[in-house]
Amino acid sequence: MPFQKVQPEKLSASVVRQIEQFILRGILTPGERLPAERELAERLGVSRPSLRDALAELQDRGLLVSRAGAGVFVADVLGSAFSPALVQLFASHDEAVFDYLSFRRDMEGLAAERAAKYGSDYDLEVIQTIFDKMEQAGDPAISEEAAALDAQFHSAIMDASHNVVMLHMMRSMFELLREGVFYNRRVMFQQHTTRDALLAQHSAINTALQARDPSAARAAVETHLDYVKQALTDHQRALRNAEVAKQRLQHEVSKT
């Protein structure tokens, strides 16, 4: 019989596995600072030498980084999703913007469907809490807090889908959106959307999720992102029309 003796596991290996799981599941996020060594050792119930061994291994593997005088942080594990050259292409070609929105529509629709099916009560409570804050935060076109909550709402749906590959892939995509690579959300929303319309769309998503209705949740996400796509199309058309009008004005002025 192929039985083997069970080897006792080092405490540091248990610490490594726990931190790995937190990073994999998106509980610990890139750039997040770990508690101080003494506090973390107490929380984990291990000695400080065992903790140091675990942190050293995770740093060697590129999951954690140590910053002198600041502490230990989760590494930017999302940063390698796209090369700088490809990000530059995304930022300079309109077709990438609309492909990005189509991709988000498909992925977020699937995530919402999964969240309605597989999300825990705690997941749905997180989504409800964020939505409640959105109702109080104001217009995302002019409020940094409201814009941040908008992104958190969508990220929470990804978290509730309980698919770690989808989670990290979409967090990487959201990071590019946050940096303005695809489009400036504030400018677009300010020009062509209203807070009431956006809030109603998010409310429809939240209502479907809380009711655990997968098809309604997916449809609500798709409707929302179709609206964003149309708003962006209208915004770009308005910019082109304004440029043409400016050229006409300059031409008329030059004739006088």
Automatic annotation (TrEMBL):
PANTHER family: PYRUVATE DEHYDROGENASE COMPLEX REPRESSOR, TRANSCRIPTIONAL REGULATOR, GNTR FAMILY. Residues 9-77 form the HTH gntR-type domain. It comes from the Bacteria. PROSITE patterns: HTH_GNTR (PS50949). This is Pyruvate dehydrogenase complex repressor. CDD domains: WHTH_GntR (cd07377). InterPro entries: GntR_C (IPR011711), TF_FadR/GntR_C (IPR008920), Tscrpt_reg_HTH_GntR (IPR000524), WH-like_DNA-bd_sf (IPR036388), WH_DNA-bd_sf (IPR036390). Keywords: DNA-binding, Pyruvate, Repressor, Transcription, Transcription regulation. Transmembrane segments: none annotated. GO terms for molecular function: DNA binding; DNA-binding transcription factor activity. Transcriptional repressor for the pyruvate dehydrogenase complex genes aceEF and lpd.
